[in-house]
């Protein structure tokens, strides 16, 4: 993996902002894969009785996956605004929910991508783990679109 982007600003790859931003740090990134981290705060909108809810895990996975495609939009333009959608959840397996006040790590791999003038369609696999224990595996289709 290319580690040249370790200090990348999250707002340069994802359009999300607090309280809906579910990625704190990009550890590694290139055109085909990314690893991210997220510290689950007690104030998270997905805090469900001390655990990070399933919907939060899926949103975190989608944001992790979006980093790969989002990076390419920002690489080619100095200023760009993006919006992203989960167009399909092809598969998701949730083995365990992480507790709040802990950190999760995710790895996503680009499976396929179709680029048009101002949007990309992609299929991405993602795993979320904590302390080397797999919590989630999923396969998502995303649409990432440039907006004016």
TrEMBL record:
InterPro entries named in the record: ApeP-like_dehydratase, HotDog_dom_sf
Name used for this protein in its record: ABC transporter permease
SUPFAM superfamilies reported in the protein's UniProt record: Thioesterase/thiol ester dehydrase-isomerase
Pfam short name (any one): ApeP-like
């Amino acid at each position: 993996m290319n580690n040249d982007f370790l200090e990348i600003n999250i707002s340069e790859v994802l359009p999300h902002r607090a309280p809906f931003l579910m990625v704190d740090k990009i550890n590694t990134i290139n055109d085909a894969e990314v690893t991210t981290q997220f510290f689950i705060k007690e104030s998270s909108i997905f805090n469900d009785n001390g655990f990070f809810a399933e919907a939060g895990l899926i949103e975190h996975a989608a944001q992790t996956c979006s980093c790969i495609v989002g990076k390419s939009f920002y690489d080619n333009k100095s200023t760009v605004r993006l919006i992203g959608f989960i167009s399909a959840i092809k598969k998701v397996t949730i083995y365990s929910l992480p507790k709040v006040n802990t950190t999760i790590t995710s790895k996503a791999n680009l499976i396929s991508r179709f680029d048009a003038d101002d949007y990309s369609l992609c299929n991405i696999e993602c795993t979320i783990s904590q302390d080397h224990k797999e919590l989630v595996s999923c396969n998502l289709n995303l649409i990432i679109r440039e907006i004016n």
